[in-house]
Design goal:
The protein has 304 residues and is of the alpha+beta class. The protein has 2 domains: 2-208, Alpha-lytic protease prodomain-like; 215-301, Alpha-Beta Plaits (2-Layer Sandwich). It contains 8 helices and 4 strands. The protein has a 4-stranded mixed beta sheet, with helices on one face. The radius of gyration is 25 Å and the shape is elongated. It starts with a helix and ends with a strand.
Length: 304
């Protein structure tokens, strides 16, 4: 449990920095939109407003998720992060709709767009800052098993991609005089944002539905049981699920009928220690059974 709290504290610090980064990026993009009068750059700035909100939501989510188990939540509060990811998806959808409305109005007006160099510079600097931070969020979110941080990181990655496209399109519109490029790119930004929202929604639903961990983790679980289970006969009905920083693992362990309770307990302790060492945030439940409960097929045969 101590490891989970440490991971939660680290995730909280990263989420707090995210708010400062999001505000800085928003300020730069707002300057670019103000100087340019471009609806595409304005849509980019609107998305950054969502980034600030989602960064704040991520901070609240990881802070609450790090709370220790209590009487009402004996398994902890980790799933709060999945509700944050769901909130991110809804906010992204709202931002995309707002951008689409502005793009339609701009398409009808087809007004000239002539951004000064300062507008380009501000937007490029914002993109560089966003790109560096989204890498931190995704990599650290995976390492800390934080759905809130990882979903926020992927949202920022979508923001970086759309910002680059918007900037290139605005420059092209200015260069060619085809000013309909500006609202067209704003619409493409909205579609890119919606895709980011879908990814966040998929992540939140998977967590709330107790989805199994990835195959690599499942293979690591089986390997840890096989290598540390000497003395038992079989492990079967192995099930696992991921919940934010925790991975819940449960299985039946078949032992010889002449094994004492003390021996069986020591064996379970050894397997649990191996699982906790190999699987970050492992929470293990083992049901010991006599040898006549062994399954004829399936499970892991152990060296007795």
């Amino acid at each position: 449990m101590h490891m989970n709290f440490a991971l939660g504290a680290s995730a909280t610090r990263i989420a707090a920095v995210s708010i400062a980064v999001a505000i800085a990026v928003l300020a730069l993009k707002a300057v670019a939109a103000y100087l340019s009068g471009s609806v595409a750059l304005l849509s980019d700035a609107v998305e950054s407003v969502v980034n600030v909100i989602t960064a704040a939501a991520a901070l609240l989510g990881v802070h609450y998720a790090a709370r220790p188990p209590d009487e009402n939540h004996p398994y902890g509060h980790e799933k709060a992060e999945y509700f944050v990811a769901l909130l991110v998806a809804l906010l992204i959808g709202a931002a995309a709709w707002s951008i689409i409305e502005r793009a339609v109005d701009a398409w009808k007006a087809a007004a000239p767009v002539m951004p000064p160099p300062a507008a380009y510079a501000a937007n490029i600097l914002a993109g560089i800052l966003n790109g560096a931070w989204c890498y931190v969020l995704i990599s650290r979110g995976r390492a800390l098993r934080s759905a809130a941080l990882e979903s926020d990181g992927w949202h920022l990655f979508a923001d970086v991609v759309s910002s680059a496209g918007v900037l290139a399109g605005v420059f092209l519109a200015q260069l060619t005089g085809l000013y309909w490029f500006d609202p067209l790119l704003a619409g493409l930004v909205a579609l890119n944002i919606l895709w980011s929202g879908y990814q966040s929604l998929k992540m939140s639903v998977a967590g709330l539905m107790d989805m199994a961990p990835d195959k690599e983790t499942q293979e690591a679980i089986n390997k840890a049981i096989a290598e540390s289970g000497a003395g038992a006969l079989q492990a079967h009905d192995i099930r696992s699920r991921r919940s934010a920083q925790s991975t819940f693992i449960e299985f039946h362990l078949v032992v010889s009928g002449d094994m004492t309770v003390h021996q069986a307990h020591a064996l379970c302790d050894r397997i649990e220690a191996a699982l906790r060492q190999d699987i970050a945030g492992a929470r293990v439940t083992i049901h010991v059974e006599p040898e006549h409960k062994a399954h004829a097929q399936g499970g892991i045969t152990l060296e007795s």
